[in-house]
Specification:
Elements: H1 2-21, E1 28-32, H2 36-49, E2 52-57, H3 64-71, E3 74-76, H4 79-83, E4 88-93, H5 97-110, E5 113-117, H6 124-133, E6 139-142, H7 149-158, E7 163-171, H8 180-183, H9 186-196, E8 201-209, E9 212-221, E10 224-231, E11 240-247, E12 250-255, E13 259-264, E14 268-269, E15 272-273, E16 285-289, H10 301-304, H11 307-320, H12 332-341
Parallel strand pairs: 1-2, 1-4, 2-3, 4-5, 5-6, 7-10
Antiparallel strand pairs: 7-11, 8-9, 9-10, 11-12, 12-13, 13-16, 14-15
Length: 342
């Protein structure tokens, strides 16, 4: 019996390892950018999924030999070389945000599929120009929260609930190297638009001191009301990202893209809350939570944050006609709200 169990376990491990070594992707891709986000977060996902890179493009000629040695691909400083190569079906772009619009424009004109990290551009006017160019909708914007399993679960639950209101907090440290609105705050702003729809009525309070910015806004998404606070006046050591959604039946709480929970509201008897009668015990249901004990892909931050799923979704879009949840046109409500916050 012991030998039977041991053999069964071994067969399962062999099957699992073979499956992990297989890849469903055969097209060739290029990657523009070798910054810290790309190296630490995106390249490992490409390797895990078996997505084949032919080129990596960067501005600095002195980095080319390092790139080729590290990744075993052709390194180049020429974007034209990539655009003129008919073997390249998709291009990943993750470089300085101020360069994204020009690169995006050029790659769209080549007819190749493109994954571009946020922000794809700086203004609503630029976005509208890109939407006009991307007639075949071959561009996916890297709004990874839209692809997170936690957000997917939350959306599913909210679709069955009567949403009343929400509060969203996004706190980081000072950000002197770029525009906090398009580089940082685009994430929570996009999440609000994605979950609750376009916000048209808005009241804003904005504070700027010593290079730090805090934006507080009351938003109206039709019947759903929300309050958001976006700030760089806190700390990078202890950043905070929290979302609380109140519905008719209960409250959903999302903490740091790590833990999604639900707390039902107490019921009423002839209009009297049963909690006042001592008949209700507050309970919390964990809908999804990252398990820090088991180092599996589903418990990796790259997965819970949505990076893994967005990269897979792009490759599926390129090779298997998969769904694009963050096309350029999908970003319009987000950019309208960003313009209002400015």
């Amino acid at each position: 019996m012991k030998k039977l169990v041991s053999n069964s376990i071994q067969r399962w491990r062999t099957f699992r390892n073979r499956k992990m070594l297989q890849t469903e992707y055969s097209a060739q891709y290029a990657f523009i950018g070798v910054g810290s986000h790309a190296i630490q977060n995106l390249y490992p996902i490409l390797q895990y999924l078996g997505i084949r890179l032919k080129y990596i493009c960067c501005k600095s000629p002195d980095k080319l030999h390092l790139i080729e040695h590290r990744f075993g691909v052709k390194a180049t400083t020429s974007l034209d070389e990539i655009m003129n190569d008919n073997e390249i079906k998709g291009v990943f772009v993750c470089t300085f945000p101020q360069n994204h619009y020009d690169i995006c424009t050029r790659i769209i004109s080549s007819g190749k599929y493109m994954f571009i990290e946020k922000p794809p551009c700086r203004t609503l006017q630029q976005l509208e120009k890109l939407i006009e160019l991307d007639i075949k909708q071959k561009v996916m914007v890297g709004m990874q929260k839209r692809y997170s399993s936690l957000i997917e679960t939350l959306r599913e639950h909210l679709s069955k609930s009567g949403i009343i209101s929400y509060t969203l907090s996004y706190h980081t440290g000072v950000y002197p190297e770029g525009d906090p609105l398009t580089d940082l705050f685009i994430h929570p702003v996009d999440l609000a638009s994605y979950l609750f729809g376009p916000a048209r009525k808005i009241t804003i309070q904005r504070t700027e001191r010593n290079g730090m910015i805090t934006v507080q806004a009351l938003l109206s998404h039709g019947d759903v009301k929300g309050f958001i606070e976006l700030s760089t006046a806190y700390s990078w050591d202890k950043p905070k990202e929290q979302l609380h959604v109140n519905t008719i039946s209960g409250e959903y709480s999302l903490q740091q893209m790590e833990r999604l929970s639900y707390s039902p509201h107490p019921k009423k008897i002839v209009g009297i809350p049963i909690e006042k009668l001592g008949l209700f015990t507050v309970s919390e249901q964990i809908l999804r939570e990252r398990n820090n004990f088991n180092p599996l892909i589903g418990n990796n931050q790259l997965y819970t944050q949505g990076f893994f799923s967005e990269i897979k979704a792009f490759a599926d879009m390129v090779e298997h006609s998969g769904k694009n949840f963050s096309s350029l046109s999908d970003m319009k409500d987000t950019y309208i709200l960003l313009e209002l916050l400015k």
